[in-house]
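[job 4471] stage=fold_predict status=RUNNING
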Amino acid sequence: MGRWRAFAVAILMIVTLGAAQAPKASFEVWLLDQSDTNGLAYGGTVHIFRGHSSGERSAAGTIDLATATASMCAASTGRNPVRPHMIVFNKTGSHAAISFVASGHVVIFNAGTRQPLACFAAETGTGGARQAHALWPTEDDRYLVIANQNGKKLERIRTDYVNGTFAQEPAATLDLAGCTTPNGAPCESAELRPDNAPICPFIASDNGPVFVSLRGGGLLMVDWRTTPMSIVAEYDKEHIPANGCGFAEAKGTVFGDGGGGTAHNLDQFSVFRMPMKGYSAANPPNVPAVQRLFDDDAHDRDAHGTAVTKNERFVWVGDRDGNVIEVFDGRTGARVGTIDLVSPFSADPTVDLFAVSPDRKWIFASTRGPTPLSGDPHSSHGTDPGLLIIKVTQGGRSGEVAGLLPITNLDATGIERADSHGIRLRPLA
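[job 4471] inference complete, writing structure tokens
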């Protein structure tokens, strides 16, 4: 395996990260290691890989989240940040935001200097819980929308990146467990949406409502501009599968997935798509219609993470349990192929989330570790935490694994704790 790892690093340097004479990289890939900073019970690490699609190389770097970030959070919230889970960039790429799922923190960074600028704590919600599971920026860079998972709330942070001012807006919070839909139904109920823990928010390029996937199935479309934020469409568990985390826009529609991975629903691979427009509080439930594209609840299936190829021709949906990617036609929605991710670089990569190079020739994936931090039982047990490199082939219809750059975080007993999860690409000027 040693020679294959060496070959992986060579591929990454030559094709993805480039040659040392490059004057400037054209993009960065930021990869989150959820595990605590070594020797501590908080923190975590951001691994940054710089690259140029034409084949130029520059150095990688890291951000230790137990230093300046932890100090800022302790000063502003009285607690340390634990388990960095998801990362997004604003639309210009000048700033990053990271959600910490265990402690419920959201931290905003200057992406160029790597320095934290503000730290917020999600509100306490259901049962006194709070978890900043995921977040998404609005297309106009006015807000970050936060999925407070176990608190069962959708929250909002105002963002002014030019002036460097950021403010949490409690008046905008939507209580997903206690609210009522425009049609008079309870937002959360055993019959419609049995567990309204928000998983992943998503806003399409038309800056419309935020799609909010729910742990127990169903989906809510929310107008993020109103105060408080308000529901403009409602879908039940019969139309939208549970545990969705992976929205992607293609050909005027939004693809979404539903997966297993949790104790009550370990095995599922479902893909659907919905229109970008047509949502109104005046509509009946489950309107506009959802198109279910693919469903498979066989053993060892777990849909999670999406990527879109050049010209939105194909949509890739990862399977972190089955170690494959299912490929869908971006126009028709038809399933057109399967990409095997098992390779000499890893027999069990367990891909979680994806980032796509600016030229759409390369797709990068976070790969999970042998001690995953997603609960147990869970489908996210991998063997090789790090950054998987996939070369796009056949115009996006297929791909082949070209390398894996490992990360590591061994504890005092020699156990590998590294567990990569959130990943995002930042184009550079």
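[job 4471] summary: The chain has two helices and 30 strands.
[job 4471] exit 0
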